[in-house]
Structure formats: structure tokens, C-alpha cells
């Protein structure tokens, strides 16, 4: 079954509290939380089709993200749906910019290319919902995460695709929780 928009993103887990060591025995993994916009990227089922970008609410917005669409056409395999967080890098300030993200999200096709040149977009991917046309809504997290890591490795994905940092180390997760706005570690990936 091939997923088609609108697709409901998988629910994000609350990041306000870090489960204790007892929860780790049951296989808990932690991912960094970024201040962006949730999005799904759909590659076509066959080469030459249209790449789609969907918001959390199911609205198609690929016209606002021409840089992501172009990168998806050249770097991502067909039949893929990635769930992730859109983030925008302010090259002048050398950091993520939520304001620039909002401006890009509100842009229409006419102004989108100029904004993309000024403020490049990234998709911080944390979940594959479909791979090779196979729907992945039910496999366990560990299996989906392995598929995602393999996707990045096998296709040598680079910007604007970023693999969301993940750990099973409670101390590292607490460090992330306390310093969640420091994104220098993932920008270069």
C-alpha cells in the first residue's frame, strides 16, 4: 500500500520529562527536540513523479520549499515518506531561525526561491513512514530507526537531510533536554 497525503504524522512523545533508568530496560530511546515545523516529505512512487511536502495538518506546501523538493528529486529514493521537523538556517546569524522558518512557511511560489537562497531549509528526519513503497506505520521504533539510518548511509544523504540525533543514554538525553536550543552539533551533518 502506498501512502498518499494527507497522512497523520506519528504522535510525538512528551519531551518535558525524561523517564528514569527503569524505563531504559524496556528499550527507551531519546531524540533531540527542535523548534521547527512538523512535515512529511513524499517522494513519488515512480521516477519522474511529483515530490510532495505536507504539514502536520495535511496541507500540501511543496511550493514553499523548492530547495527541499529539488533535493528530494536528486537524493531520495522513490516510494519514500519521511516524517521530520523543518528547520531553517540563517546563514548571516549562523544559527537556526524560527522567524525565518515562519516567513518561508508563509511564502508563496513567487517568493519562495529567493527566501530559500537566503534561508536554506533542512528536514531533520526522525521516522520513515514508507520505504520502497512499503508502509511502515506498525513496525517497532527500533526497526524503523535502523531503516532510517540505513537510508542515510546507503544514499549518502547530505544537507538538507539531517538524521535526528538519537540516544539510549539517559545522561545524554538529560543534557539534550537542558540545552535543547544548541544545534551546532547537527548542522554540519
Task: Give a verbal description of the structure.
The radius of gyration is 16 Å and the shape is globular. The chain has 7 helices and 9 strands. Strands 2, 3, 4, 5, 6, 7 and 8 form a 7-stranded mixed β-sheet that branches. Residues 185-189 have low confidence and may be disordered. Helices cover 32% and strands 22% of the residues. It is of the alpha+beta class.
Question: What is this entry, summarized?
Answer:
This protein has 189 residues and is an alpha+beta fold. The chain has helices spanning 21-24, 66-75, 98-106, 109-118, 141-154, 170-178, 184-187; strands at residues 30-31, 37-42, 52-55, 81-90, 95-96, 121-131, 134-135, 161-163, 166-167. Strands 2, 3, 4, 5, 6, 7 and 8 form a seven-stranded mixed sheet that branches. A two-stranded antiparallel sheet has the order 1-9.
Characterize the main sheet: 7 strands, mixed
Q: N- to C-terminal separation?
A: 32 Å
Helix-strand topology string: HEEEHEEHHEEHEEHH
Query: What ranges have pLDDT less than 50 throughout 5 or more consecutive residues?
Result: 185-189
Mean pLDDT: 84
- Alpha-beta content class: alpha+beta
Index terms:
alpha+beta; 9 strands; seven-stranded mixed beta sheet; 7 helices; two-stranded antiparallel sheet; 189 residues; single chain
Q: What is the topological layout?
A:
Layout: H1 21-24, E1 30-31, E2 37-42, E3 52-55, H2 66-75, E4 81-90, E5 95-96, H3 98-106, H4 109-118, E6 121-131, E7 134-135, H5 141-154, E8 161-163, E9 166-167, H6 170-178, H7 184-187
Parallel strand pairs: 6-8
Antiparallel strand pairs: 1-9, 2-3, 2-4, 4-5, 4-6, 6-7
Amino acid at each position: 500500500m502506498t501512502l498518499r497525503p494527507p497522512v497523520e504524522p506519528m504522535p510525538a512523545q512528551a519531551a518535558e520529562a525524561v523517564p528514569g533508568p527503569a524505563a531504559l530496560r524496556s528499550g527507551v530511546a531519546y531524540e533531540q527536540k527542535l523548534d521547527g515545523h512538523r512535515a512529511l516529505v513524499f517522494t513519488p512512487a515512480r521516477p519522474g513523479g511529483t515530490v510532495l511536502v505536507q504539514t502536520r495538518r495535511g496541507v500540501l506546501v511543496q511550493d514553499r520549499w523548492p530547495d527541499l523538493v529539488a533535493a528530494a528529486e536528486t537524493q531520495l529514493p522513490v516510494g519514500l515518506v519521511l516524517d521530520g521537523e523543518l528547520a531553517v538556517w540563517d546563514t548571516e546569524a549562523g544559527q537556526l531561525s524560527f522567524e525565518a522558518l515562519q516567513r518561508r512557511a508563509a511564502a508563496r511560489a513567487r517568493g519562495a526561491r529567493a527566501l530559500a537562497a537566503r534561508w536554506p531549509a533542512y528536514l531533520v528526519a526522525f521516522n520513515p513512514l514508507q520505504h520502497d513503497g512499503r508502509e511502515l506505520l506498525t513496525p517497532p521504533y527500533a526497526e524503523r530507526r535502523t531503516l532510517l539510518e540505513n537510508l542515510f548511509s546507503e544514499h549518502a544523504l547530505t544537507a538538507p537531510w539531517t538524521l535526528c540525533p538519537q540516544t539510549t543514554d539517559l545522561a545524554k538525553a538529560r543534557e539534550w533536554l537542558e540545552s535543547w536550543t544548541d544545534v551546532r552539533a547537527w548542522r554540519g551533518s
